[in-house]
Amino acid sequence: MLAPALVVIGGLFGGGLADALAQSFGWFPALGMHDLELDAWRAVLRDPAILHSLLLTLYVAATTTAISTILAVALALALRGSSARLPMAILHLPITIPYLLAAVGITLLVSQSGLLARVIANLGFIDEPRDFPPLVYDPYAIGIILTYVWKETPFITLITLALLRGAPEELEQVARTLGATRRQCLRHVILPRIMSGLLAAAFVAFAFTFGAFEVPLLLGETSPPTLPVLAWYEYQSLDLADRPTAMAVALIIAIVTGVLAVVLLRLSRRFFNV
Amino acid sequence: MGARLELDRLSYRYPGADDCAVADLSLAVEPGEIIALLGPSGCGKTTTLKLIAGLLESEGDVRLDGRSLRSVPPERRHIAMVFQKGLLFEHMDVEANVGFGLRMRRTLKSQIAPRVHRALDQVQMSDFARRRPLELSGGEQQRVALARALVTEPRVLLLDEPLSALDASLRDDMRELLLHLQRDGGHTTVFVTHDQQEAVRLGDRIGLMFAGRLSMYDEPEAFFERPPTRKIAEFFGATNFLEGEYADGVLRTAIGELKLAARVTPGRRTVVIRPESIRLGNGDNAFSARVLECRYLGTGMQYRFAIGSQTVVARLPADVTLTAGETVALQLPPAALWPID
Ligand SMILES: Nc1ncnc2c1ncn2[C@@H]1O[C@H](COP(=O)(O)OP(=O)(O)OP(=O)(O)O)[C@@H](O)[C@H]1O
Ligand SMILES: [Mg+2]
User: Fold this and answer.
1) How far apart are CA A148 and CA A204, in angstroms?
2) What average pLDDT does range A182-189 have in this prediction?
3) What is the DSSP letter of A28?
4) Number of Cβ within a 10 Å radius of residue A81
5) What is the mean pLDDT of residues B322-335?
6) Does residue B186 contact residue B1 with C-beta atoms inside 8 Å?
């Protein structure tokens, strides 16, 4: 029963990875490139611009994940007891909207010619919209982070809600009669219980942010670009000699994500007994 | 030492429910006393415990040694509750579970370990201190849950069907353990059960609940010997009801005249007699009865008899062997006939 599934997954995932690996070493038979060489890797690992891109990407992904997770836990705790439909509907909305649209929306909202800048200028807080701080195409990648936070907070919230509802209310009641305040319940009973699931959800969000290129492509500075954007540039390049570089960068993304996954899994096992 | 617990007209309705889960419930438990809340499933026993613990916002009042707890949150009431399911914290080992309450109340670290070990000792779970809850059997989990409550030295201990998950022999052991710990620690204890036997064996007094209301609150014997209503008599296993007109010291029923030992006001009356109070033989209130059916109960025999048009159930010693169709003399001793409303 499992075999067909394994073949499909192995073929898609392992095959893609193997192909990328081969191409990053310059092995590209379709173009008559048959020699294995380290040129691309050497260039990539020596290039300080790549390091900048890596740091930028880590910064964007980590900040996004941290903000989204904190917001999501707060939201989920607030929504936990309620059965109201409206908040749930609002929560589902961002999930259904494509990243591309979200990026456009954020631009309309927070760019220097955007809605927010004009409103604030009209209210007299700044002289003209241009004085509004640059939140898109800016060095702190605020536009990118805002877009991702807007998309990912609801995702993590829904997962957290499911996790919270899986924990019986009476578990907290027991803790209260043993002398725990509400806050202590949250800290010592609820959070530990949902932590491994929450970490997994946060990791999914992180991995996506770390590897996706469309939002930073639209809203980011061109230099340095994030790693996925860089890979995309190299991949798009008309010069096929850039292909190994694109693959090497893509593999760096995969390696960082993979290492993080292993570390998280270990942490989860060690601390949360799952 | 336990405190005196008073419930004063407690009422609670779950949001959205039509009927009160607990209605107008008042009772008092003396310091160190253990009482049973008994009643059928869904009658509001668990809800009552939660009201005492302050987990639900109720109408009425709960008082400890005369002090109202109306504005005291659960964590400051010093009333520990052990729930129907063990509800251990799965991310902690047994020792950490038992120490939870002490840590939350910021007990000195140096005191926690010895107290935890003593509590584990009391429930005979010392060898399991390092285990995770998921590695314990249901009975072991319940013992840990009990230790986790006891270690906080509560002024009142609330137990919600603490024995329900256990098999018969473990149940006996746990019952003894519970009684022993309760007497030793002098905890004022309210425990919930839907098992009449258990209530009788454990409770100094029993509170019988039907549909959110307390029907009777008294010593166990009273439920057997002096049940005030047919419903209560039935809940405690009395099955024989005889109706008639009472005058001049006798009740005239369909099967004949019955002498009663109890004082009764004249008029239409019903009396109840327990199956184990009926005897074979002659004397006052003896009737000729035909055996309809017999069933072996292990500890005795249960027979169904017909006395005229009335059917009565009697429990007789195992050495009495009667066969269906046989006719015998059956006596309903006057002292065993109790008038009910
Ligand atoms: N959270 C809840 N929301 C709404 N109604 C509830 C809730 N919990 C219990 N009830 C209702 O309140 C009534 C009393 O419930 P409770 O749990 O106190 O019964 P119980 O006597 O403990 O029963 P059992 O012996 O089956 O445990 C029941 O009719 C039940 O359906
Ligand atoms: Mg219950």
Assistant:
1) 13
2) 92
3) B
4) 10
5) 91
6) yes
pLDDT at A274: 47
Q: Rounded distance, CA B53 to CA B7, Å?
A: 11
Write down the pTM of the prediction: 0.81
What is the arithmetic mean of pLDDT over B134-154?
Answer: 92
Contact B301, B328 (CB under 8 A): no
Q: Per the omega criterion (within 30 degrees of 0), is the bond before A87 cis?
A: no
- CA torsion, ordered A24, A30, A34, A40, to nearest 10 deg: -20
Question: How many A/B residue pairs have CB atoms within 8 Å?
Answer: 70
pLDDT tens digits for range B148-158:
999 999 999 99
Name which CATH class applies to A58-222.
mainly alpha
The per-residue pLDDT for range B55-108, each reduced to its tens digit, is: 999 899 999 999 999 999 999 999 999 998 889 998 899 999 999 999 999 888
What is the whole-number distance in angstroms between the Cα of residue B39 and the centre of ligand 2? Answer: 10
Q: Report residue A73: phi and psi, to 5°.
A: -65, -45
- Tokens standing for residue A42: 């050497």
Whole-angstrom Cα distance, residue B30 to residue B24? 20
Select, from the ranges A34-43, A80-89, A242-251, B75-84, the one with the highest average predicted confidence (pLDDT): B75-84
Contact B144, B86 (CB under 8 A): yes
Q: Which amino acid is at B1?
A: M
Report, as an integer, the average pLDDT of A198-223: 88
Could you give the CA distance from residue B120 to residue B85 in angstroms, rounded to a whole number?
A: 19
Interface residue ranges in chain A relative to chain B, Cβ cutoff 8 Å: 168, 170-171, 173-181, 184, 188-189, 192-193, 272-273
The structure tokens listed for B217 are: 């609150």
Q: Where are the domains of chain A?
A: 58-222
- In single-letter form, the type of residue at position A272 comes to F
Q: In this structure, which amino acid lies at residue B71?
A: S
- Would you state the structure tokens that stand for residue B71, as one six-digit string? 């504005």
- Of A254, A236, A235, A255, which is closest to residue A244 (Cα–Cα)? A235
- Looking at residue B298, what is its pLDDT? 84
Distance of alpha carbon B43 from alpha carbon B194, whole angstroms: 10
The sign of the dihedral angle between the CA atoms of A17, A68, A70, A142 is positive
Q: Strand, coil or helix: what is A33?
A: strand
Which residues does a 6 A CB cutoff place in the pocket of ligand 1? B 14, 17, 21, 39, 41-47, 194
